[in-house]
Amino acid sequence: xxxxxxxxxxxxxxxxxxxxxxxxxxxxxxxxxxxxxxxxxxxxxxxxxxxxxxxxxxxxxxxxxxxxxxxxxxxxxxxxxxxxxxxxxxxxxxxxxxxxxxxxxxxxxxxxxxxxxxxxxxxxxxxxxxxxxxxxxxxxxxxxxxxxxxxxxxxxxxxxxxxxxxxxxxxxxxxxxxxxxxxxxxxxxxxxxxxxxxxxxxxxxxxxxxxxxxxxxxxxxxxxxxxxxxxxxxxxxxxxxxxxxxxxxxxxxxxxxxxxxxxxxxxxxxxxxxxxxxxxxxxxxxxxxxxxxxxxxxxxxxxxxxxxxxxxxxxxxxxxxxxxxxxxxxxxxxxxxxxxxxxxxxxxxxxxx
Length: 353
Fold this sequence. Notes:
The chain is α/β, with parallel strands linked by helices. It has two domains: 17-35 and 261-352, Aspartate Aminotransferase, domain 1 (Alpha-Beta Complex); 38-258, Aspartate Aminotransferase, domain 2 (3-Layer(aba) Sandwich). Helices cover 36% and strands 17% of the residues. It has eleven helices and 13 strands. The strands form three sheets. It has a seven-stranded mixed β-sheet with strand order 2-8-7-6-5-3-4, sandwiched between helices. The model has no long low-confidence stretch (mean pLDDT 95).
């Protein structure tokens, strides 16, 4: 059996470790450590009670209606036809890439950033144009420059693994200068001070994607959504699977966005933990980047990040060790519960002596 040469040659996306049993402290994949809203469980129960013998509504209409209401303060003129739902935001990134990128085209994204962008480009047989961040985590003018064959650009904002963010005015400048669509991947935006949700109404080339995995504690449910002008959504909808969101995920995601009291309390808790963890890591000598996400990117001047990762893992604590060719390495640590963070800090103190 032979697959396409570009598929055979690629490494493929490698997710963070996902142990399904044991008692390890898991701070490696930026999951929300707290249970989801009780309203989510109730909504899922009602769907299961009704039965799953019928196909779900193919466009996740209930979610789009409620989301449009809630997002109208950030995105002027938004209606349900500005929203496309997917099986997690990764599904939406895949749909967008398939819609705009052909073999031999170029896909641009920052370095370092979400490694799935590489994979999506390679699946299409496209060229990866990686533009390194400046030392202060801004992007050079090169990122918004034209290039022959450039068909799509990705910008994680807040970025992973750094947790840094570009202000909307800068993102709009980039989008205006680019000759192609710009996907603003806002997977972590609910932990940030500002968002780019107003930009699609200002520029047809801007597509914002979001996920329910992080801030809504629904990583196991798989639901995300994209916001763009209706004529863009109409084209992207042609590429998605017929029923890419199941009845359970639609009901759960709709209940989740509707529970604003739960969301506000959860967000405040995680931001407080992030602030405390960041200060404590710096006291231990770590060089940390100010974060606008639910994680912290750091290095220790006296301890290689790979060694720290291995020693923490041996102690039952998982963090994410990341190494980017031609850029560097570090560890990314999720803001878990206060108890998990205390265990991490105690273990780091022991390791560092």
